[in-house]
Amino acid sequence: MSRICEFTQKASLVGNRVSHANNKTKVRLQANLQDKSIFVPSLGRSIRLRVSTAALRTINKIGVEAYAAKVGLKLG
After folding, report:
1. What is the pLDDT of residue 76?
2. For a Cys staple, 52 with which of 5, 26, 39, 67, CB 3.0–4.6 Å?
3. Where are the extended beta strands (E) located within 1-76?
4. CATH H superfamily, domain 13-66
5. Binning pLDDT at 50, 70 and 90, where does residue 1 land?
6. Quick check: 45 and 39 in contact, CB under 8 A?
7. What is the CA radius of gyration of the chain?
8. Average pLDDT score over the chain
9. Distance CA 55, CA 17 (A)
10. Where are the domains of the chain?
């Protein structure tokens, strides 16, 4: 399973960790992804998703079906 959000498509970034002496070390910046089981009322069951915490906040705010329709994702 890749580290990418199924709703927002957030993925890993590459950056530098910079020391006080200005030494640069490559580092991978991972998206904050969570494996969640989310209940979908229209299906009458839960589905497992790997979503970012930003997507989880939006799902809590507007609902999983509305958010899936907004981003063009088909549930089920």
Report:
1. 75
2. 5
3. 13-18, 24-29, 33-40, 45-52
4. Ribosomal protein L28/L24 (2.30.170.40)
5. low
6. yes
7. 16
8. 94
9. 27
10. 13-66
Helical segments of 8-63, H only: 53-62
Position 29, amino acid: L
Question: Which residues does residue 47 pair with via DSSP β-bridges, in sequence order?
Answer: 38
State the number of CA atoms in the 13 A half-sphere of 76 facing the CB.
7
pLDDT over 90 (residue 75): no
Report which residue type is found at 62: I
User: What residues contact residue 45 under an 8 Å CB cut-off, 6+ apart?
Assistant: 39
Q: What is the pLDDT of residues 47-66, one digit of tens each?
A: 999 999 999 999 999 999 99
Query: If 0-12 CB within 10 Å is exposed, 13-18 middle and 19+ buried, where does residue 33 land?
Result: buried
Handedness of CA 75, 67, 46, 50 (dihedral sign): positive
